[in-house]
Specification:
single chain; alpha+beta; Thrombin, subunit H; 3 domains; 6-stranded antiparallel beta barrel; 23 strands; globular
Length: about 675
């Protein structure tokens, strides 16, 4: 049960104030992490917050008792307000809360089945409630599903629970099917003076409002965004070599009757992770039509109707099939239908399609007859050809996008550690004019602790930006520091009058006074302007930190390679800094560094996957400053699909644009 309790959170009014542990304070109820940066709870819990904002208290470290608070925004609630009158909140009484900054946390596993709360099945109720000695405690109990109020087609259906006491405050907490090891519902209410309570099936989330415009990516639809993130999270946790903690897949595999039908928990979570990399179904109707073409599948019997690929897979578990071979064929046919589904031109990447096809191929080679395998090969060849044809016009369109910052004036900030004083830094600010000499703005060589530098140079930076910015197009800030200071979070500095982080306002890149061997830099730089880029993680293999290769091996990398330092961290040690120097010695003018602190068992597959996509989508490195700026704006705006990039920094040193000279006038 630790997996469930670690993911169960407390919902408070913002800010939580002094009464965070008191039953009469600002505590609203319970909830749980359903996906990275997403909390599921009851609408009647979430909507008691102020202005659609709540405080989410959770356990950031499972081995410590202390809780961490992070602000959350209610982005969906069903219903969105309490109906007039004296009654309670009607079902489905569900709400989704989006965290407003990226944090590390665990997530529950949510079933993909319809009507998962089977009658007479035992479920565990988990939530927070006032303790007998005061304060709030994580509570749990076992109940049995005794029936429902309303049928499966009733929008206000609730499930009746009988068994242990459901305490005040547990509303919004998860219900776990003890046989399958999956979250199947949300606690809605307790019964006054009686044991048990009511709950809402997790499948009711499918009734979230469908966007009025076409769904082309998962971010266009909250439902798809949440469950794609959920499935990628659990696939990464299962397949990671670095993770040491027990996963939901581990726990499910040890059950007497493991979930996932013929696939079992491990194959299922792998498949769901691959499906989550694909664009969602164009519509519920399109998904139902795909399912209707499969033998023995009665998709119209599932209420609410399947909405995502995971729901479609769940619908296959109850299909009538003569034997295990027929069951595997059904799943493989479903996957091929997903690959062949109609979608906007170029929307499905060849790389992600290959990943799903690879899974299908492995299953088919072991479980299916030769004739069917040959037929699948032919179908895949047709799908692959169509994807390649669709990608070419999309690439031409994308390549014609304007370069925003390549030929612009920019602001240059030098920060130097004084060689004779510990933790004392000098700085200078200049405007680098593309068509003329650099303009010194201000400097300070008296030395200052690093923590005070942002305040000291705020006025100089503000003046420099004023000289360069254009309406709707802020100038780039180039931060020139030694490789040992690449962890300096200048993009997180907040300057007046915007009150926003610098990286969210304008592109911020790193440069270095140490630039390595000059003869190799122009060739690499020029190749990155003409050839599609590809990312290469150089300090992490199988999610374990490794030493950055020696210069000879780095020089052998293709010129269009963008090295990625996944394990750079916020305070790099001498070995990490030496690895950066080897990159510069090898002629690289562009590199990406992840400055978020990581532990030895940090699962970083999501970062690897997303950084590869971001670099590939950018195509040429003169667009990378804009891309990183776009991601930072997304993180600042609370866009959870961009939280993977929090802490990422771009080293961007154009050999054709030398650093401005250092002949500054000392400020009085």
């Amino acid at each position: 049960m630790d997996l469930v309790q670690d993911a169960t959170v407390r919902i408070h009014r913002p800010p939580s104030g002094y009464a965070q542990d008191g039953p009469e304070g600002d505590f609203l109820g319970s909830g749980f992490f359903v996906a990275p940066s997403w909390v599921l709870t009851c609408a009647h819990v979430a909507m008691r917050g102020e202005g659609g904002m709540v405080g989410v208290w959770f356990k950031e470290d499972r081995y410590r008792a202390e809780l961490t608070e992070v602000p959350g925004k209610v982005v969906a609630a069903m219903p969105g307000a309490r109906p007039p009158g004296g009654g309670g909140w009607p079902a489905p009484d569900l709400a989704l809360i989006q965290l407003q900054r990226p944090v590390e946390h665990t997530c529950v596993y949510v079933t993909e089945r319809s009507e998962a709360m089977l009658r007479s099945r035992e479920v565990r109720c988990v939530g927070w409630a006032p303790g007998q000695g005061g304060g709030l405690q994580n509570r749990s109990g076992v109940c049995a599903v005794k029936g429902s109020y309303g049928g499966s087609g009733d929008a206000e259906q609730v499930v009746r629970l009988d068994g242990d006491w459901v305490e005040l405050g547990m509303s919004g907490g998860p219900l776990v099917d003890l046989v399958r090891g999956e979250v199947v519902g949300v606690i809605k209410s307790r019964l006054d003076g009686h044991q048990g309570g009511t709950a809402v099936g997790i499948e009711r989330l499918r009734t979230l409002e469908v966007p009025a415009t076409p769904v082309e990516t998962e971010t266009d639809d909250i439902y798809q965004a949440v469950f794609h993130a959920h499935d990628r999270y659990h696939a990464d946790q299962h397949t990671s070599s670095a993770g040491t903690e027990r996963t939901w897949t581990d726990a499910q595999s040890e059950l007497p009757v493991p979930p996932g039908g013929i696939l079992g928990p491990k194959r299922r979570v792998d498949l769901l992770g691959r499906l989550a990399e694909l664009p969602p179904p164009a519509s519920t109707r399109a998904l139902l039509m795909l399912l209707d073409r499969l033998p023995g599948v009665h998709s119209r019997d599932h209420r609410p109707a399947p909405r995502g690929w995971r729901d479609g897979l769940g619908a296959l578990y109850d299909a009538r099939a003569r034997d295990s071979e027929a069951q595997f064929e059904l799943i493989v046919r479903f996957c091929m239908g997903v690959l062949a589904a109609d979608r906007p031109c170029g929307q499905l990447s060849v790389r992600n399609a290959k990943a799903l096809w690879g899974w299908v191929k492995r299953i088919a080679d072991v479980e299916l007859p030769r004739d069917l395998r040959r037929q699948l090969d032919v179908e895949w060849a047709e799908i692959r050809l169509r994807l390649e044809q669709n990608r070419q016009p999309a690439d031409r369109t994308r390549a014609s996008a304007p370069v925003l910052y390549g030929d612009r004036d920019c602001v240059v900030l030098h920060v130097d550690l004084q060689g004779w004083s510990r933790d004392q830094y000098d700085w200078r600010v200049a405007v680098d004019r593309r068509a003329s000499e650099a303009e010194p703005v201000d400097e300070d060589s008296r030395g200052a602790p690093l923590g005070t530098v942002p305040d000291r140079l705020a006025a100089a930076l503000t003046e420099a930006f004023r000289r360069c910015d254009e309406p709707g197009s802020p100038a780039m800030l180039q931060v020139v520091v030694a490789p040992a200071l690449f962890g300096l979070p200048v993009d997180d500095w907040v300057l007046p009058p915007s009150g926003q982080r610098l990286g969210a306002v304008r592109p911020v890149v790193l440069r270095s006074p140490y630039q390595g061997r000059p003869e190799e830099r122009p060739a690499r730089w020029n190749a990155g302007l003409a050839t599609p880029l590809r990312a290469e993680v150089v300090d992490c293999e199988d999610e374990l930190r490794v030493r950055v290769p020696e210069s000879a091996r780095l020089r052998a990398l293709a010129h269009e390679t963008v090295p990625v330092l996944c394990r750079y961290g916020s305070r790099p040690d001498s070995d990490v800094t030496a690895g950066v120097v080897r990159l510069l010695d090898s002629g690289f003018g562009v590199a990406l560094l992840q400055r978020r602190t990581t532990e030895g068992d940090t699962v970083c597959r999501e970062f690897h996957r997303r950084v590869a996509e971001a670099v590939s989508d950018t195509r040429t490195h003169d667009r990378l400053p804009w891309k990183i700026h776009e991601l930072r704006r997304g993180v600042s705006a609370g866009r959870t699909e961009m939280y993977w990039s929090a802490g990422a920094a771009l080293y961007y040193d154009d050999p054709h644009r030398p650093l401005p000279g250092s002949d500054f006038l000392e400020a009085p």
